Amino acid sequence: MNQDPALVSIMRQGPYLIASIHTALDDSQMVRFQHDLVDKIGRHRSRGVIIDVAALDVLDSFGSKTLRNIAEMARLRGAQTVVVGIQPDVALAMVLLGMGTVQVETALDLEEGLAYLDDAVAPRAAVDARDGRP
């Protein structure tokens, strides 16, 4: 990523990418994060993406829309996405402002996010292996 490593980290964990947002991002940083993450999905042939937002105490409408866009782009590139760590106050504000993540899977924390991806991705990987796909 081209930005300060303290803002966002993207790590590879087997067939998954784990992206942690460490602090609030402005719109241009959010767009850069989106671009970098979607690029890495293809580069690493990732089957799943976890976006950890536990460090955020606010998520504006642009950030919420960008997370939905990332999930859709990842799906089009063949990867499942799950957002984890949404704080209670952030969830309440998102619902009250109509900024839900209906199109995006969510989980309580990283452990549940990994379990979700294991359940969602493992059956598809088995079918791909039978068909001879990587």
Description of the structure:
The chain has a 5-stranded mixed beta sheet, sandwiched between helices. It is α/β, with parallel strands linked by helices. The protein is built from 4 helices and 5 strands. The two termini are 26 Å apart. Helix 1 runs parallel beside helix 2. The protein has helices at 27-44, 61-76, 88-96, 110-131; strands at residues 8-13, 16-21, 48-52, 80-84, 105-107.
Task: Give a concise summary.
This protein has 134 residues and is of the alpha/beta class. It is 49% helix and 19% strand.
Entry keywords:
single chain; alpha/beta; Transcription Regulator spoIIAA; five-stranded mixed beta sheet; globular
Low-confidence residue ranges: none
The number of domains: 1
What is the average per-residue confidence, as pLDDT, rounded to a whole number? Answer: 87
Distance between the termini: 26 Å
In sequence order, what are the helices and strands, one letter per element?
A: EEHEHEHEH
Strand tally, please? 5
Largest sheet: 5 strands, mixed
Q: Cα-atom Rg, whole angstroms? A: 15 Å
CA-based shape: globular
Question: What is the helix fraction of residues, given as a range?
Answer: 40-55%
According to CATH, the homologous superfamily is STAS domain
Adjacency order of strands in the biggest sheet? 1-2-3-4-5
Helix count from the secondary structure assignment: 4
Strand content: 15-25%
The CATH class designation is: Alpha Beta
Topology-level CATH name: Transcription Regulator spoIIAA
Organism: Cellulomonas aerilata
Pfam families: STAS
InterPro entries: Bact_StressResp_Reg, STAS_dom, STAS_dom_sf
Protein name: Anti-sigma factor antagonist
